[in-house]
Please model this.
Amino acid sequence: MIDADDTLWENNILFDRAIASFIEFLDHKTHTPTEVRGHLNRIEHERVKVHGYGLAAFRESLAICFEELAGIKATTEHRSEIDRFTAIIAGEEMLLLDGVRETLHHLHQRHRLLLVTKGADDEQRKKLRNSGLEQYFHDVEVLREKHTDAYCALHCRHACELDRTWMIGNSPKSDINPALAAGFNAIYIPHPNTWVLEEEEVHPPAEGPRLVTLERFSQLAQLF
Ligand SMILES: [Mg+2]
Model:
């Protein structure tokens, strides 16, 4: 089971750029960029529980942040500028991380590969198509949230043996800790630009599932 965003391709960096443009556009007279960013993080943290992940949710969080900090209702002009920041993300070319294509080519000949991502279904599937990596996956799961119950459901749905199945990803919160808690093994490949909402301490299991940390995706070829 392999995560997509910031495991196979760059993702968070695009959002960071959009947020930087938003902060410039807001041009707040008293709040520093760090404070604006902190406020947006809090809005997103609350909203993902109800509205999930994806560009539409992100765009609305920016609009709410704008209204709360500017203290005015966003006009059509404000909205269209905010829309533009998110449209840039959607239009970006997929930037694969180092060695990903070659490594998937190697892995898919030897193993059953399942893409396990979260977010808006259409957006995640479109990214996969645009990445040119679709051919390497036997199946794709776009989940609303990647928590322990979701991994337990994958275990049943795909009839995969827990001790022979690995979850590979960059997020301790979504990929590593819940997969380990569900009984899967996990491979943690940290990405230096991981979304702040995905940050969490990795909880190595005392016994049972195995946890391996790698520096690069391409190192998977030596393990599998
Ligand atoms: Mg990820």
Q: What stands out?
A: The two ends are 13 Å apart (CA to CA). DSSP finds nine helices and five strands in the chain.
